[in-house]
# Entry
Amino acid sequence: MNFAMPLEQLLRDNLLTLFVNYQGSVGGSFKTVSAKVSGDSGFYDKLAKGIALFSVRRYDVVVANFSSLWPAELAWPDGIERTELSQIQPRSRRKI
# Structure
């Protein structure tokens, strides 16, 4: 029986691919790139160590931030859906 890769691992691999490709093209530290796309300078390190916990929403926001910063001369990695921040629905605030 063949099983699909767990979604969490697929999303983690996608983010790591974006980090490595982007940083390899523009330079700078992973901490700087991490702060730009996730708002957390330690997110890449936690992701690479397999200890980062993230929601699908955070995944979407990080991918959208990469998309907006992505160099025109660098091909977007195959197999990773590209999105924009404008496509992400704002969260509704729950009333207490």
